[in-house]
Amino acid sequence: MPSLRSQSVLRPGQIVFAATDIESFAAERDGYDAFGLLVGRQDSTPGLRYVFIVGTVARNEYRSVAVADIRAVAMTVHNGDVAWDVGPGDPHALALYLQQADGAAAVRFPAGHDRFRLVDCVPAVCVEELRSGARWVLPTAVSNSTGARTTAHAPVPVAGTR
Asked: pTM for the complete prediction?
């Protein structure tokens, strides 16, 4: 992703976002935090799609306790309108990812050793984590006759296969 890196710094940075206290009963005490990492961009019919891998981290008694879910997500901006496409959760891919987790390290997403990449898996886009071989699918978004965005139902590739 050289095009997404600053040319003025020696160490490449990552583009990330976070949303905290989702479904929290007490601020910062319990609930969920969602963290996203920009994996790449893809040309599509409505315009550029920015593809993220998004992890949901469960929190209990002020501590992160588990990565609860991971999904591929895309953002598209067309004529000033932002559309988000969310891929399905994949328990098998999540299990593969968690097998490679460092049990001694604090629970966080993305972890310091994670290496995600964008993978074409026509007619969808996949995000693969290189160490575990886990793969999440983002079916191709299409517009219906009313212009509303929907998600095409593509066969889901098996995690760890190409």
From this structure: 0.75
